[in-house]
Design a protein that fits this description.
The protein has helices spanning 17-28, 49-53, 66-69, 120-123, 138-147, 167-181, 203-216, 264-267, 311-329, 378-394; strands spanning 3-4, 8-13, 34-37, 42-44, 63-65, 75-77, 81-85, 90-93, 97-106, 111-112, 129-130, 151-156, 188-193, 219-221, 224-230, 235-240, 245-250, 253-255, 260-261, 296-298, 342-349, 352-358. The chain is an alpha/beta fold. The protein folds into two domains: 3-110 and 262-340, FAD/NAD(P)-binding domain; 118-259, FAD/NAD(P)-binding domain, CATH 3.50.50. Strands 1, 2, 3, 6, 7, 8, 9 and 20 form an eight-stranded mixed beta sheet that branches. α6 (167-181) links the parallel β12 and β13 (188-193).
């Protein structure tokens, strides 16, 4: 039997980076009634998991209690949303609550669809397969990399939008550099499987990454993806989508990235984009406002805007959402625009990084003056390892960056 809780002027679904950032900005703007629905006890800085898997950072540095990052004055509803009724302006939760709202911000994150690749879930239970896409598995990746001295290492990326699309490549480079330092790289076949026709969607960065892959002797399969895994025989089936062919590779270790989509309850609900099989919330890519329900906004990984799904994108989307949401409460049309900015800090070695910044035009949009961020740099490594985590915990989650 459902119970009606007190409605809220602004209700936010999801207490990840997007939800906390928006809530903090709303509170700083003077909005008094802001609530966040979030079931988790722990908040994660997920970009650090690549460095955890590469043996360059401890896992504990990526986690803090959710209670410690919730904005002061915001109401935390520790529950899980199961459905949204935008006509009635309510959300329904797992515990049976029905929560009303005047404005809704939808940012529940993205769903990892492990089951869409036959054998992938089962393979994760073996010592030879891991993924940096979960907090629990990232340390296992480093155990595998550290223990390999010869054989074949496979690194995969699925087709379709995923969070941090550079992450599948980053761990391959961190691993290859480690094996190079250990003097065993020439005994290891490194296979990188990418669904895209090039290393990256922006040519200047793609050209740089081609040089990185060549430096390590990485065998790159473009326009391809792993479509099946046999964990017993340690064999992966690779499909070349451009040539419509299949091949298989025997692996000694493998880092996998699952296909991803909007959460199932979003996918099957009224807010989903009917033209998008991944089921993302249908929003105007500039205003972040829902195209059919004016009192609903969305940002982050679950939104349909065609930008790269990164924390840097959220950092630019959040002020747009807040400005347009507050304006809508007083009857004003949206005035702020998001132009698709995203950045992908690509670790190319254990001491170098390439900072790929771009927007909807798919052209480089550098934000750091003077230095050339289209090339891998040692100073950018320190930004990745120390600067960006500091920015996240101390500025972004407080609505200050």
């Amino acid at each position: 039997m459902s119970t009606q809780s007190t409605g809220h002027r602004v209700l936010i679904v999801g207490g990840g980076s997007a939800g906390v950032d928006v809530a903090a900005r709303l509170r700083r703007a003077g909005e008094k009634d802001v609530a966040i629905v979030e079931p988790s006890d722990v908040h994660y800085y997920q970009p650090l998991w690549t460095l955890v898997g590469g043996g360059c950072a401890p896992a504990g540095k990526s986690a803090r209690l959710q209670s410690k990052v919730m904005p002061k004055g915001a109401t935390w509803i520790k529950d899980r949303v199961e459905a949204i009724d935008p006509d009635a302006r309510v959300v329904n939760t797992l515990s049976g609550k029905t929560i009303g709202y005047e404005r809704l911000v939808v940012c529940p994150g993205i769903q990892l669809d492990w089951g869409r690749v036959p054998g992938m879930s089962e393979a994760l239970d073996t010592p030879a397969v891991s993924s940096n896409y979960t907090f629990e598995l990232a340390p296992k990746t480093w155990t595998m990399i550290r223990g390999l001295r010869s054989g074949t290492a496979v690194f995969t990326m699925p087709s379709g939008p995923i969070k941090c699309a550079g992450a599948p490549q980053k761990i391959a480079y961190l691993a290859a550099h480690y094996w190079q330092q250990q003097g065993v790289l020439d005994r290891i076949r490194v296979v990188l499987v990418l669904p895209t026709p090039a290393m990256f969607g922006v040519k200047v960065f793609s050209d740089e990454l081609e040089q990185v892959a060549t430096r390590y002797g990485i065998e790159v399969h473009t326009s391809s993806e792993v479509v099946e895994i046999d964990p017993d025989s340690r064999r992966a089936v690779i499909q070349n989508n451009a040539e419509n062919t299949k091949d298989s590779v025997d692996y000694d270790i493998m880092h996998v990235v699952p296909p991803q989509s909007a959460p199932d309850w979003i996918k099957t609900g009224p807010l989903a984009d009917p033209a998008n099989p991944a089921g993302y919330v249908e929003i105007d890519k500039h205003t972040m406002q829902h195209t059919r329900f004016a009192d609903v906004f969305a940002l982050g990984d679950a939104g349909s805007s065609p930008n790269s799904k990164t924390g840097a994108a959220i950092r630019k989307q959040a002020p747009v959402v807040v400005a347009n949401l507050l304006g809508s409460l007083t009857g004003k049309p949206p005035t702020k625009r998001y132009e698709g900015y995203a950045s992908c800090p690509l670790t190319t070695a254990r001491n170098k990084m390439l900072l790929a910044e771009f927007d909807y035009t798919m052209q480089p949009t550098p934000s750091i003056p003077i230095i050339d961020t289209t090339r891998e740099r040692r100073d950018m490594w320190y930004l990745k390892r120390y600067g960006l985590p500091f920015l996240y915990w101390n500025l972004m989650l407080k609505g200050r960056a």
